[in-house]
Design a protein that fits this description.
Length: about 375
């Protein structure tokens, strides 16, 4: 019994001590942390920060509520967060050069990215300081949830919002960044990205999963190819890798395609294999794409009117288009074809056609072509 009372007294003393320490720390440490974070963000990103309140937690973390980062020299918010909990590496508070955050967890982040009429993004500009007293910020781990990114593209006159974003980052002094990002709007626009990036060598390795992507929301970026009424990436798996020269390889499945080129419309489905590369030094873009179209319908074809039940396999690179196993129905007649087009600057066409049907239909089409 005496032992129990002794333990109880010790527990009460420890609890009261912890409560008093927490109360004292809630007066001293939050102000110190707010000051350190504000100073680091202002130094690194050249932006002002407003934090409504801060709270010290028993596990040593600090919770910041109502965080707003403002655009440079304005009172317009660039980024806002409902709540950010950070676990500082406390010895770094004594450093004059760097403030280290062991982990950071953010909820309800909203960020508004804008590309202006000149094609410039309002991404944070890292301000270089020669002042030895300036303090840098380094985050080892980060997790973001329930967040939103709004993109306004004044250059392409379009706007897109990504919701329900979750993002996890793990950084090392190497440096190397491990990242994972997910976003979705219900069952639509599901994007999952996982990979690693080495900033020192610009080396990137990532996998991308796509599902339910409504391409009609990206019309302004596709209008040079054709007028897209609708198309959905039912699912897609891409792999991105490279160092200076980056490649994108993978496959996507397209459903409910409805595109217009001049007066010709195509509706159908497609399975496409992608192989792109981009040289960041020479700015050279190259590609080799293959795949198949199926369950296709083409309307308003010159001299032929409509084609039904279209299917074909194809391969497209920078200067060559080849197709095979083309099958379609035209006015109850059957057409099969294969061929290729070489040298897009001075095209040479090789075409093989097999026709099974009425000659009167061909005669009518030829008369229209006169």
């Amino acid at each position: 019994m005496k032992l129990f009372k002794t333990l109880f007294v010790i527990f009460v003393i420890l609890f009261v001590t912890a409560a008093i320490a927490t109360a004292i720390l809630n007066i001293i440490l939050p102000k110190k942390i707010v000051s350190a974070v504000s100073s680091a963000v202002k130094t690194s990103l050249h932006k002002n920060v407003k934090i409504k309140n801060a709270r010290f937690n028993l596990n040593g973390s600090i919770t910041l509520k109502g965080v707003t980062i403002y655009k440079h020299k304005t009172n317009k918010p660039y980024l806002a967060a409902k709540e950010i909990t950070i676990l500082p590496f406390y010895p770094s508070l004594l450093s004059q050069k760097i403030f280290i955050i062991s982990s950071i967890k953010a909820t309800g982040i909203y960020i508004h990215l804008i590309r202006n009429g000149k094609g410039e993004l309002n991404l944070p500009h890292v301000k270089q300081e020669n002042n030895l007293a300036s303090k840098k910020i380094f985050i080892k781990k980060a997790y973001v949830s329930e967040s939103t990114i709004k993109i306004t593209d004044e250059y392409a006159t379009t706007e897109k919002t990504f919701r329900n974003i979750t993002l996890s980052l793990k950084l090392s002094f190497g440096p190397r960044i491990l990242f994972r990002l997910e976003t979705n709007n219900g069952q639509k626009d599901v994007i999952k990205i996982k990979g690693k990036f080495g900033p020192a060598k610009n080396k990137l390795d990532a996998s991308v999963f796509l599902s339910g992507i409504q391409l009609s929301g990206y019309k302004p970026y596709l209008k040079k190819i054709a007028e897209l009424n609708s198309a959905i990436i039912e699912d897609g798996n891409l792999f991105v890798s490279g160092k200076d020269i980056y490649s994108v390889k993978g496959e996507i499945k397209l459903e409910k395609i409805d595109i217009l080129k001049q007066s010709i419309t195509f509706r159908g489905k497609a399975h496409i294999r992608l192989d792109f590369s981009f040289d960041t030094k020479t700015k050279r873009f190259s590609y080799n794409t293959s795949g198949s179209l199926y369950e296709g319908k083409i309307r308003n074809v010159p001299y032929l009117d409509n084609l039904e039940d279209l299917s074909l396999s194809f391969n497209l690179d920078e200067d060559n288009f080849t197709f095979s196993s083309l099958k379609t129905s035209w006015q109850e007649n059957k057409i099969e074809a294969s061929g290729n087009i070489n040298d897009f600057s001075n095209p040479f066409i090789d075409l093989n056609i097999k026709y099974k049907g009425k000659l009167d239909n061909i005669k009518t089409a030829l008369q229209k072509a006169k």
